[in-house]
Amino acid sequence: MYSIFGPALFASLVAAHGHVTNIVINGVSFDGWDIGSYPYTDSPPVVVAWGTPNTANGFVAPDAYDTSDIICHLNATNAKGHAVVAAGDRVFLQWTPDWPESHHGPIIDYLAGCGASGCETVDKTTLEFFKISGVGLVDGTDVPGIWADDQLIAHESGWMVEIPPDIAPGHYVLRHEIIALHGAGTEGGTQNYPQCFNLQITGSGSDKPAGVLGTDLYSPTDPGILVNIYTSLLTYIVPGPTLYSGAVSITQATSAITASGTPVTGTGAVTDGTTTTTATTSKITTTTTTTTLVTATKTTSSKATTTTSLGGGGAAQTPYGQCGGASWTGPTACASPAACSSVNQWYSQCLPTVA
């Protein structure tokens, strides 16, 4: 384990806590990277999320802040597709429904421009990130306080971020991150959970904020990284660079899902609110795993809207896959060591039973 991935991955295997399963833009859900199946196939589906062999839902430790692992997670590779979003619209990031209540900390969102060639082939070590959202300690009246992650848990394990309205159109990586501070009173005890997604932003904005390299975002001794949250905190400094002046502060909310989106592949010319593209769209269509509604599947290359199902049969569902809910006709048994857990009347999920 050490010889392949190094100490950061070994540490992450000890305590595993979650990842983003899908993102939602204007009611359309785009699949994330499925750590339960995609790392084990030679030809994973085209998705908008960056891939990682991090099958243990692990974290990036502070001793890896100066390595490429901190950029988009452990050994992350470029997403092969992207989603289109207008500047001023909001993106809802749906996490697995198992974030521990004890793992308090900030949630931070960044953007980094990829250039005309797009984000599918960009060198992640050249990306320069600017902060568009940063929420830390919400209420410090009681110890350890109410944090951004508590808001995420309260909103069905999801987080909403607005794409600033004045951002120039183009191809961007959205870097979304939870930082867990339950062990941050000791240097090296902080846990970072970065996730990256490819976006094509449309609109008429002109702002191109300066950013910093991913390997320069944090230091192990930053005041928002090395901090004891079990003492009364009068203030808390959200880690990372200064918030972009055009960032928009929003009230957290959930996002209903009305359709399942197909990632766009290739690049196109981005103009005032429209996209002219010569690229093809992915032919892979998947059923979203949502925690809100039973969803339809809609492709960008067809005028028809169809509903798909995994179908019945005796096959066991993979960990983190759907295993029940209203109108569900797919597998209801989970592959070991997972068990089917009801999230709500519409959705049940196979969650690992091993601590």
UniProtKB/TrEMBL annotation:
CBM1 domain: residues covered: 315-351
GO molecular function, one term: metal ion binding
Location(s), subcellular: Secreted
Protein known as: AA9 family lytic polysaccharide monooxygenase
SMART domains: fCBD (SM00236)
Cofactor: Cu(2+)
Keywords: Carbohydrate metabolism, Cellulose degradation, Copper, Disulfide bond, Metal-binding, Monooxygenase, Oxidoreductase, Polysaccharide degradation, Secreted, Signal
Gene Ontology BP terms: cellulose catabolic process
Domain comment (free text): Has a modular structure: an endo-beta-1,4-glucanase catalytic module at the N-terminus, a linker rich in serines and threonines, and a C-terminal carbohydrate-binding module (CBM).
Family assignment from sequence similarity: Belongs to the polysaccharide monooxygenase AA9 family.
GO CC annotation: extracellular region
Role, per record: Lytic polysaccharide monooxygenase (LMPO) that depolymerizes crystalline and amorphous polysaccharides via the oxidation of scissile alpha- or beta-(1-4)-glycosidic bonds, yielding C1 and/or C4 oxidation products. Catalysis by LPMOs requires the reduction of the active-site copper from Cu(II) to Cu(I) by a reducing agent and H(2)O(2) or O(2) as a cosubstrate.
Record flagged with keyword Cell cycle: no
Gene3D superfamilies listed in its UniProt record: 2.70.50.70
Enzyme Commission designation: 1.14.99.56
Broad class of the protein's primary localization: secreted
Catalytic activity: [(1->4)-beta-D-glucosyl]n+m + reduced acceptor + O2 = 4-dehydro-beta-D-glucosyl-[(1->4)-beta-D-glucosyl]n-1 + [(1->4)-beta-D-glucosyl]m + acceptor + H2O
One Pfam family named in its UniProt record: CBM_1
Enzyme class: oxidoreductase
Domain of life: Eukaryota
Signal peptide limits: 1-16
